[in-house]
Amino acid sequence: MDIRELVKPKINPNIPQISPGDTVKVNFRITEGDKERLQHFQGVVIRTRKGVDGGSFTVRQVIYGIGVERTFPFQSPMIQGVEVLKHGKVRRAKLYYMRQLSAKRARLKERRAKVTEKAIPEEWETQSPQAS
Fold it and tell me: Which residues sit opposite 62 in a β-bridge?
């Protein structure tokens, strides 16, 4: 008997498709005593992990020159939402080398989005060249 048969992970619907190199803003609930509040954590995804428990992703942020990493489970109900700010162009699955880089060298190039729309706007197509 496998644990996958017993427990089916329920992925949080507030988490979009993310990959290493993406800059994300994670909004999650913090409980302090009897109060709850939202806290934001913005940084670069340095790894994603898939597993029997649903997997997790790790976000790295540099605050006042000190690197802070936080790991979030994909199935956590405490995550209110994840917003992808930009997609980074990387060639590795795990970006652990970012830990040794200084601020300017740690910047990633942005990945180009695939062009799905026409390059020529429709209003240009309706105008004929003889109209002038």
Answer: 67
What contacts 67, CB < 8 A, 6 or more positions away? 60, 61, 99
Number of H helices, E strands in the chain: 2, 5
- 114-128 pLDDT, tens digit each: 655 555 555 555 555
pTM for the model: 0.74
Residue by residue, DSSP assigns 54-91 as --EEEEEEEETTEEEEEEEETT-TTEEEEEEEE-B--S
Domain boundaries, the chain: 3-131
Fold for the domain defined by 3-131: SH3 type barrels. (2.30.30)
Place of tokens 């649903």: 54
| Whether residue 53 has pLDDT greater than 90 | no
Bridging pattern class, strands 56-63 and 66-73: antiparallel
Residue count (the chain):
132
User: Percent of the chain scored above 90 by pLDDT?
Assistant: 43
pLDDT-derived band at 65, boundaries 50, 70, 90 = confident
